[in-house]
Amino acid sequence: MPTSYDVRLLHKKQVAEGTMEFTMEKPAGFEYRAGQYGDMVLPASTGLTGDNNKHGFSFVSAPFEDTLRMATRMRAGSAFKQAAAKVPEGTMIQLLALWGDFTLHKNEKMPAVFVIGGIGITPVRSIIAQATHDRKPHKITLIYANRRRAQAAYMAELEQLAQQNPNFKLVPVYTDEQGYVNAETLRQAVPDIAAPRYYLSGPEGMVKAMRKLLVDVGADEDNIKTEEFEGY
Questions:
Q1: Over the stretch 67-113, which tens digit does the pLDDT of each residue have?
Q2: Is 24 inside a domain boundary?
Q3: Do 22 and 130 share a structural domain?
Q4: Residue 189 CB: number of other CB atoms within 10 A?
């Protein structure tokens, strides 16, 4: 069962075109694994009630960091997201946690390849930042697809992590210019297709398409882990 925490909303900011980040206090003793997520519950002052006042978000922040960060693509049709954008900084909100097993495997000799679309980057930023902080020896490749750079949340941070971590390779794909991730993209980024553990996250349609593509090019289907982001 999840635990409920009362936390203060510290900051809100735009981290990419159409993407907003929420920074919250980290409760004393709160522990999680990079890649996990929790539910943000908005206060009654928003006018939302029941299941309409909560939404699950991956932690963008890494466990070693002092605050909790979540981010989401903003949609005009989402009452929750529009209400969340209006909650004043300093407001107490509720966090329900902890959920999820979209976490880095323990076998350090097995490479990790993340094939990520858009807002699917949120748990991955946490995983890569923590692996870099802990000096994990995992060979990590991130193929990160967005229509254009302006929509690519955390790209500057990821570029910095790629400079800090010699085991991390960043492969940005801007589909307006380069087209979608395809078999050739994978073969250029991953020398031995069958060797890695693959992690897919992003919009549901993208995740399903990438899973099929990986199997078609020779990835081990048992080594594909997915996290589908609904409502984007």
A1: 999 999 887 678 888 889 899 999 999 999 999 999 999 999 999 99
A2: yes
A3: no
A4: 18
Alpha helices, DSSP H, located in 14-115: 79-86
Q: What is the tally of structural domains in the chain? A: 2
Token pair 């570029």 in the structure block, residue: 159
Distance CA 140, CA 166 (A): 9
The one-letter code for the residue type at 57 is F
What's the pTM value of the predicted model, to 2 decimals? Answer: 0.94
d(C-alpha 53, C-alpha 83), whole Å: 9
Widest Cα–Cα separation across the chain: 53
Q: Residue 64's domain spans which residues?
A: 3-99
Q: In sequence order, which residues have a C-beta less than 8 Å from that of residue 71 and are 6 or more positions away? A: 15, 19, 20, 21, 22, 57, 60, 119, 122, 153
154 and 189 in a common domain = yes
Look at residues 99, 134, 158 and tell me which one is the last residue of a structural domain: 99
Same domain, 90 and 120: no
Would you tell me the crossing angle of helices 155-164 and 121-133 to the nearest 10 degrees?
Answer: 30
